[in-house]
């Protein structure tokens, strides 16, 4: 990352591409898996980091979080001042916009930082430092709490395919693959949306490559279930994967076109 003065935002300006409803799959997963943490907190703050040229994703995040945590507040953070100015008319109860970057300019440690399509333009070697910086800003774990959650990943322009890493205060925990099943030919189609930490590792000898290879094989073996629909075929393929991979969710999430795997099983070979 480009060096900046301590008082300046940390990071670089993104392309700013955004579309309404683009992050629905990520938001749905966050609400399902992190909703209880947000609900328990007296003042649950979430950050939409790098929301882009329009504030749609921050507006939508507030609405989706409030279905599971009515006290949730969202702070949209953008490094480009003009984008912050353009978003200010959309402020409302529970939603504000701030100029900033990876330093996360909010007074308290947030329970959620969502960074979608932000690190795509960075070098792979820069990811670990960004993750570390963002995780250090998360609310710490405590009695009855796992602490805050950083969700960082990449999706296509209209949100049909999405892969993200979930990290806690101590680092990465899981990788989730999510897709609109009707648009999928094979699970390895999701490789093009791997987050920066993994996208260059989809080569023989790397765990993520082996996982997608096995997923394609399970998908092919589940072809007879296609007569019952793509959802049933996906569920069957994921069930086959559980024999060899640490799949951490179950049929409720699989039915949504998702599968979540332990980070350690897919982490790059150093």
Let me know the largest β-sheet: 8 strands, mixed
What are the segments in which pLDDT stays under 50 over at least 5 consecutive residues?
1-6
Tally of DSSP β-strands: 8
Order of helices and strands: HEHEHEEHEEEHHHHEH
Strand line-up across the major sheet: 3-2-1-4-5-6-7-8
Radius of gyration: 18 Å
Tally of contiguous helical segments? 9
Tell me the structural class. Answer: alpha/beta
Please estimate the helix content: 25-40%
Question: Per DSSP, what share of the residues sits in E-state strands of 2 or more residues?
Answer: 15-25%
On the 0 to 100 scale, the average pLDDT is 94
Protein model, in words:
This protein has helices at 24-40, 56-66, 81-87, 124-137, 196-199, 207-221, 230-241, 251-254, 263-266, and strands at residues 45-49, 73-78, 95-99, 112-116, 149-155, 161-168, 171-179, 258-262. By secondary structure, the chain is α/β, with parallel strands linked by helices. It has an eight-stranded mixed β-sheet. β5 (149-155) and β6 (161-168) form a beta hairpin. α1 (24-40) crosses α2 and α6 (207-221) packs across α7 (230-241). The chain is globular, with a radius of gyration of 18 Å. The two termini are 22 Å apart. The relative contact order is 0.12. Mean pLDDT is 94; it is low at 1-6.
């Amino acid at each position: 990352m480009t060096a900046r003065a301590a008082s300046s935002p940390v990071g670089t300006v993104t392309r700013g591409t955004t579309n309404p409803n683009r992050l629905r799959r990520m938001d749905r997963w966050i609400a399902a898996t992190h909703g209880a943490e947000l609900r328990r907190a007296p003042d649950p703050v979430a950050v939409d980091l790098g929301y882009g040229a329009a504030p749609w994703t921050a507006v939508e995040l507030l609405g989706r979080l409030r279905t599971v945590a009515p006290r949730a507040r969202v702070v949209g953070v953008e490094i480009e001042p003009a984008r912050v100015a353009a978003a200010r008319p959309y402020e409302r109860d529970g939603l504000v916009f701030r100029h900033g970057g990876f330093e996360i300019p909010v007074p308290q440690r947030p329970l959620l930082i969502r960074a979608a399509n932000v690190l795509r333009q960075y070098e792979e070697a820069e990811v670990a430092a960004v993750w570390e910086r963002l995780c250090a800003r998360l609310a710490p774990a405590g009695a009855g709490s796992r602490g805050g959650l950083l969700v960082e990943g990449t999706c296509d322009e209209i949100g049909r395919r999405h892969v993200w890493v979930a990290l806690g205060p101590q680092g990465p925990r899981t990788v989730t693959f999510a897709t609109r099943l009707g648009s999928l030919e094979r699970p390895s189609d999701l490789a093009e949306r791997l987050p920066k930490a993994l996208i260059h590792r989809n080569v023989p000898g790397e765990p993520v490559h082996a996982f997608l290879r096995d997923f394609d094989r399970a998908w092919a073996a589940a072809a007879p279930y296609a007569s019952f629909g793509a959802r049933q075929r996906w569920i069957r393929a994921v069930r086959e994967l559980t024999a060899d991979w640490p799949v951490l969710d179950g049929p409720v999430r699989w039915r949504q076109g998702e599968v979540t795997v332990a980070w350690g099983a897919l982490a790059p070979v150093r």
